[in-house]
Amino acid sequence: MTPVVTLGETMALLSTPPWGRVTGGSSLPVGIGGAESNVAIGLVRLGVPCTWISRVGDDALGSFVTREIRAEGVRVLAPRDPDAPTGLMLKEMRGGKPARVRYYRRGSAASLLSISDIDDAVIAAADVVHLTGITAALGPGPLAMLGHVIDVAKASGTLVSFDVNYRATLWPPEQAAPVLARLAAAADVVFAGPEEAALLLGGEPGTDPVELARGVAKVGPATVVVKLGELGSLALQGDQQHRAAALEVTVVDPVGAGDAFVAGYLSGLVEACPVPECLWRGNAAGAAVCAVPGDWEGLPTREDIESRGDAGEVVR
What we know:
Blueprint: E1 4-7, E2 11-15, E3 30-33, H1 35-45, E4 50-53, E5 56-57, H2 60-71, E6 75-77, E7 80-81, E8 88-94, E9 97-104, H3 120-125, E10 128-132, H4 133-136, H5 140-156, E11 159-163, H6 173-186, E12 189-192, H7 194-201, H8 209-219, E13 223-227, E14 233-237, E15 240-244, H9 257-270, H10 275-290, H11 302-307
Parallel strand pairs: 1-4, 1-10, 2-8, 4-6, 5-7, 10-11, 11-12, 12-13
Antiparallel strand pairs: 2-3, 8-9, 13-14, 14-15
Helix pairs in contact: 1-9, 7-8, 9-10
């Protein structure tokens, strides 16, 4: 058993050449991408054991996905589906930077996730179970699974963490909003960007982030964390408001920074750190991922975070 459990789809990830066009003979590097496994890897690198639950196809990509995640020290509970493929995503580059991500996940093995894929004892034994709105968008089976996981967690005293993680390419806002709001109301800790918080409340994204956090808190979660990108982050816990400034970084690839932030924050939460320390860890992890290409490759270790900003000669 591990302190943190997360569940959701991880896909094989292809990236186009830096100039964007795919031509005959083009080489497309293969990686992996998935919000929940990003968080799991981030936690393990920060010293917090984590379990990732999913499904993959009985194919070469499924083997690759599970092998990569296991190699990072994450406990993997992902059966191989003989009848459905592993999902695929394509990162289209422009000028050497990501311009668009396309998903090929309809009918994937993970879209068939259901309550039967959950071992209640694994959820009950965890300190935290981390969920995202992406899983809710995959279909009725995954959505029912999230509801079951929340029920088990509530009955067992396991804290429920929920990252809204709205994906416009998966479902329209009018369909997503009530579902995501219901999941946020059942969570103990909610992570959202300003636009996502506004989506939960049916308001405009231009609203002050503190007011957005207060609005989400009224729905039910004890803690609401708003990710503000280059403006840092804030957390509202009861009547207490906390802020943390962003770390200065040259952004190379912002994809995955939000997942890194969640991993950093949850690492502090599991260790009972004060909220400002959790926010700082989240900001530091997010900045580290932004500084290098890839969704998760730049996830920092504890040593990376503790030494961040240190000046001096190269150790050799």
